[in-house]
C-alpha cells in the first residue's frame, strides 16, 4: 500500500542498538551498607548555586554547576517520559516505532573515579540487581547491559558471570578501561574476553566513555574549545569507539575468541570499511613489526565480530549494500539529544524509503536479532499499529 | 585490448596525491648564516652506538638510536633510487606507472621543536628555495609542497605568498600547528586561510604530523605499546587528518573561503562520508551549542573543499560510486613502506580492474587535475609505454 499525500507514512518498526536509562540518584547510597554508601559519589551545592563539591571514594573536588544552557541541554536530554521509568518507556517505544532496544546505564560515568575495588564492585552489583526488576522483567523488548568494574579483572570476570546467570545478554564496557589498569589490547584482559565468550555475553561498548579525570577539572566530552567546538567534541567521541574495536582486533582478543561479539554503540557504522582497509594496510605494510600475527585477516575479524550502531547516518545504507559490511544496526539513542526521540519515524523514512526491503530489514531488525538471538521476535509488520505496550 | 594470460596487464597510469622527498641532511646547516645554522637540529652519537644527543634551537635532549629492526625499517622506507634524487625519481615513476605526484618534505618533522620564530622561518625558506631547482624544475610531473612556519601566523602568511610567487601550488601543513599557537579552528589562523585562498594555494595536510615533544621522550608515531601496537599506531594517524578537516569545516574557515581547497594525504578517503554524517548529526542535534553557524551544510563543505588520498583501500571505489564523494585521489606514498613502491601496478589493477572507466579516471587522474589545474596534462593512455622520463 502506498501512502497518499494525506495519509501518514506507514510506520517502520526498528530495533535499537543504543538507548539509555536514568537510574534513581540514590540507587547506590540507598542500597549499599553505610561503610560503602559513604564512598559513592555525592555532591554538596554551594549556597550561591554556582559551584559544588563532589565527594567520591575518599576524594573531593570542586566543580562549577551547569550554567543555564548546560542545564537546559541536560533536561532536554532526559525529557522523554520513559527516561527513568520502564513502563512509561514502552509507550514511548510504541509511539516512536522502536520494537526492542539495548539499554545502557547512566551512573556508570562515575566508574573511572573510584579507587577502591570493593566500592565500585559492590555499587555495580547494586545496579545490576536493580535493573532486573526495573528494566529486564518489564518487557523482553528491553535488553539492559550489565556493568562490571574494570578496576580489577577478577572483579570484572566474577560480576560478568553472575550477571549472565541473572539473564543479562550484554555487558557495558567503557571505550578505555579504568585508568589504574592497562588498555584493552593488553594481555591483562585476556581472561575477561575468554569469560565473556564462555558466558555468551556481547561486549557492548558505548562511545564517549573514555575515563575522565573529574578531580583535575576535565569535563566529560570536552576536548576542543572555541569555534566549532560543539561539533568537534561530538565527532571526536566516535574515535574512542573505533579504537576499542581495533584494540580487540589487533591484540588477538577476537581472533582467539571467534564467538565473541562486540557492539560499538552510537559511533556510527560507515567507519568500519574504512578502518578495515586502514588496518589491512598497516598489518601488511608494517608486517615486520606486527605482534601478534592473527589467524584471520584483521578486516575479516572486524567485519564478522564487530557490530556498529548509528542514528541518522545515510552513509550506513551504502555501507551494507556496497561495502559488504553487514553488521550495521540502527539505534535511537533514546532519550538523548543526539538521538531520534520525537522524530524517529521521520528519520527511518528518510533513511529507508526506496531502500530494498532486505537491506532495511537487516539494519532495523536482523542485525539486532543476530546479536541477541531468541530475545525478541519480529516486530509488527511495516505500517502495523502499536501493540498495546505489552509487558 | 584485453591482456591474455601470457601478456603483462596493461599499465594503468595514475597521479599520486602523496609522495615524499628526502632532503640532504645538511640542507639547513649548509645554507643558513652561522648564527642560525648553529640552532638547527644536529645529533651527536655516543661512542657505544646506543644513544645520541640531539641539539635543536637551544635545547638538548637524549634519545635512543634506532635498534636494528628500526634502522632496517627506515632504510627500507627510503630504498627507492629516487627517494633523494628527482632525476632518478622520474625513472621510478615511469616504472611504477605514476604520472605526476604531490611531493611532501621530510625535514619538516622537526618544525614543532623549534622555539625561535626566525630560525624556523629561515630554515623553511632555505627548503623552499632548494626544492625549486631540486624538484620543481626537474619536471612538471613533480608538484612539491611549500613549507611555512606555524610558529607565527605572520611568518606563515609571508612565506606562503613568497612561495606562491615562486611557482608553488600547495603548502604543506601539519595536522596540528606548532604547540606555541592555538589549534586550526582558532580565529588566529583566519588571515592565513584568506591568504591561501588569495594565492590559490592548496592546503596539503599529511597524516601523522601532529607535533611531537621529542625533548620529553615522545617518539613519532608511538601512541600504543604492547599487543597490536604497530597496527594501532598506524591506524591512529588517520584520525589526526580527519581532525584537521573537521576543524577547518566547523570553524568556518572553509565556509568563509569557498575557493580554498584542502588535501588530506595518506589518511585514506572512505572516512569522508562517515565524518560528513557524524558532523551533520552533531551540527543539527547540538544546534543550541554550535558556533559559528555555517552558510552551507558541513557535509557539503567537506565534500566540495576537502580532497583525500589513499593507497590500497578498496573501500575508496564504492565511496566514489555510491556515497557521492568525488574528491578521492589515489596516492603512492612513494617511497615509504606504507606505500606502493614495487607493487604499484599490482595495486592499481587490484583496485580498478572491472571498475567503470570514468570512476578509475576520476580517482587516478581527474581529482588530481581538478586540484592542480593546468599543472600537467593527461598521462599516457592505459597500457602505453613509459615516456622516456621527460624532464
From TrEMBL, chains A, B:
GO cellular component, one term: cytoplasm
SUPFAM superfamilies, alphabetized: Metallo-dependent hydrolases
Single GO biological process annotation from the record: secondary metabolic process
Keyword Lyase: yes
Family matches, as InterPro entries: ACMSD, Amidohydro-rel, Metal_Hydrolase
Keywords: Hydrolase, Lyase
GO molecular function terms listed in the Swiss-Prot or TrEMBL record: carboxy-lyase activity; hydrolase activity
One Pfam family, short name: Amidohydro_2
Domain annotation Amidohydrolase-related: ranges: 117-364
Keyword Cell inner membrane included in the entry's annotation: no
Protein name: Predicted metal-dependent hydrolase, TIM-barrel fold
Origin species: Cryptosporangium aurantiacum
